[in-house]
Design a protein that fits this description.
The protein is an alpha/beta fold. It has 10 helices and 15 strands. The strands form 5 sheets. Strands 9-8-7-10-13-15-14 form a 7-stranded mixed β-sheet, with helices on both faces. A two-stranded antiparallel ribbon has the order 1-2. It is elongated. The chain binds S-adenosylmethionine. S-adenosylmethionine binds next to helix 6, strand 8 and helix 8.
């Protein structure tokens, strides 16, 4: 028997003419794979769960359940936009999990990446112990992902999170409120360290834009949906990173630390700039794909060496 999901018809072993959850997942995974989407099965599961108004893992309990026509129509529209237009899954569902936190995302913020959890892990190792009070500055907070992950892990941490985009800060504020973390997070709009003038912190973190403008042409189609200011730093790509390393010491307490995410090929240069700027304990961390992606350094404590 042949059936169609939208404009494409497929064969099915089922005689009933209805689709089950598992059949839809298999068909869509094959469709996305043919289109060159790396995360075909995961994307199919996220979109089907969204269309059915359920959790992704719930699908595994409902593999044999028939999907109603109205739900299938909703799913078909999502599959079309993901496949043909390459709209990222998070933009279609409006949500993304980061550090096990359910975050709302919109076209105004960068969709948080699993690789950025490397920065969160590094930051946790740089902060004082769990029971100690500490102050964090997150420059270019976007959805609030990094600051919220750290606040969720450290009950005595307080954070200032900044961004040049007021629209991004509105999303970060909404996420903070929904997660019950708003009381310990202050949001301010402005460039780089501008909103933190005259303030010092125990840790400065940032996942700044680090692509060069010339890289725009060769990027994955999904990146067209991300805000430009979240991706591109300038002609070199390293402009923001340089400014962060150069300005951090003026906003850190004695013994305070800086941790930034970089492109893999930028990490050695950033480590060198940190040493030149007077940071000690300079360290490079690898991401999930074993590429160097986070660089950190620590200022000397008063009366001691870095
Ligand atoms: C790569 S995104 C990171 C977002 C979020 N921190 C994350 O890791 O998912 C960079 C963010 O920095 C902001 N940004 C870019 N240039 C900036 C600047 N000069 N000063 C402050 N924020 C900036 C962008 O608006 C964007 O939200």
């Amino acid at each position: 028997m042949r059936r169609s999901l939208g404009s494409i018809s497929i064969s099915t072993s089922s005689a009933s003419g209805t689709w089950t959850v598992l059949e839809l997942l298999r068909w869509t995974t094959g469709h996305f794979t043919k289109l060159g989407i790396d995360t075909a099965r995961l994307d199919a599961e996220c979109l089907l769960a969204h269309a059915l108004g359920t959790e992704r893992l719930r699908l595994y309990l409902d593999f044999d359940k028939p999907v109603e026509d109205s739900e299938r129509a909703r799913f078909r529209d999502l599959v079309k936009r993901r496949g043909a237009e390459r709209v990222p899954v998070a933009h279609l569902t409006g949500k993304k999990e980061f550090w096990s936190l359910p975050l709302r995302v919109t076209p105004d913020v960068l969709t948080p990446r699993p690789d950025t959890e490397t920065l969160v892990e590094a930051a946790l190792g740089l902060l004082p112990g769990k029971d100690q009070e500490a102050r964090l500055l997150d420059v270019g907070t976007g959805s609030g992902a990094i600051a919220l992950a750290l606040l969720s892990d450290r009950p005595k941490l307080r954070a200032l999170a900044t961004d040049l985009s007021a629209a991004a800060l509105a999303v970060a504020g909404e996420n903070a409120a929904r997660l019950g973390l708003g009381e310990r997070l202050e949001l301010r709009e402005g460039l780089l360290f501008g909103p933190a003038a005259g303030q010092r912190f125990d840790l400065v973190v940032s996942n700044p834009p680090y692509l060069a403008l010339a890289e725009a042409a060769g990027l994955a189609p999904e990146l067209r949906f991300e805000p430009r200011e979240a991706l591109f730093s300038g002609p070199e790509g390293t402009e923001c990173l340089r400014a962060l390393v150069a300005g951090a010491a003026d906003h850190l307490e004695d013994g305070g630390a800086l941790a930034v995410e970089t492109a893999p090929w930028q990490a050695p240069a950033v480590a060198g700039w940190m040493r030149e700027a007077g940071f000690g304990e300079v360290r490079v961390y690898e991401d999930l794909g074993r590429r160097p992606r986070v660089v950190s350094g620590r200022l000397a404590r008063s009366g001691g060496d870095a």
